[in-house]
Amino acid sequence: MRITIPVTGSRGDVQPYLALGKGFRAAGHEVRVATHADFAPDVLGLGCEFFGIAGSSRELHSGEVARRMTGAGRNLVAYVRELVRLREPLMADLMARCAAACQDAEFVLLTPTTLLLGLSAAEKWDLPFCIASFQPTAPSRHLANCLFPEVPSWLPGRGTYNYLTHLVAGGFLWAFLRPHINKAGVRSSDCHRSRSWGRRWPSSRRPRPWPATARASSRGHPTGAPTSM
User: Does residue 12 come out as left (phi exceeding 0), alpha (psi in the -120 to 50 range) or beta?
Assistant: First the structure.
């Protein structure tokens, strides 16, 4: 199977999907990783095909907007505002190149940093897709969204709080990004315009118990998401 994995962001965003691509390769699949130019050696070193959809990750994330975004912590409003400012100038090109990267694929693995772009490309070429997130982002009563603080286990209504954090975070991100995604879609190869995101989002199953051998910290999360996000 020909699998395309579009992913952008910092090393921490990209590296887990390189490992996943390596696993797909070992299972006999053809893997194309569509990402930043400075990750090309890593992709090729794993025997995967590289497809450039953005320039230097290091340069993109060294500017003032990126610093404000990463420094926003769990301030959802500030984080999303700076994320949109960082990505808006690149959106049309990202959309076009993501569509090109997926054109001859048989399956698209969607990642959090290119979620709506990859979804538009998969819809354009009528391809099956799967959302793979290594952070708690899908609605669940067992884990709060990675952009929200956890509440004490003894607090009543914790499951409802956890579930609502995903709806609020997803809806907020969608409201900010939708105009720019749709505008880029019109400019770039007529990718599909998105109108509703909530119905596409799967529910998250209860996570497996935290291994007894693992060490937790104030900055760690069972799924790997840093609490400072």
Answer: alpha
- Hey, what CATH class is 2-197 in? alpha beta
Interacting residues of 108 by C-beta distance below 8 A, sequence separation 6+: 3, 4, 5, 6, 102, 118, 121, 122, 127, 128, 129, 130
Give the pLDDT of the chain (229 residues) as one tens digit per residue: 999 999 999 999 999 999 999 999 999 999 999 999 999 999 999 999 999 999 999 998 899 998 998 888 878 888 888 888 888 888 889 999 999 999 999 999 999 889 888 988 999 999 999 989 887 777 889 888 888 888 888 889 999 999 999 899 888 877 877 776 777 654 444 454 444 444 444 444 455 555 555 444 433 333 333 333 2
Domain edges within the chain: 2-197
pTM to 2 decimal places: 0.76
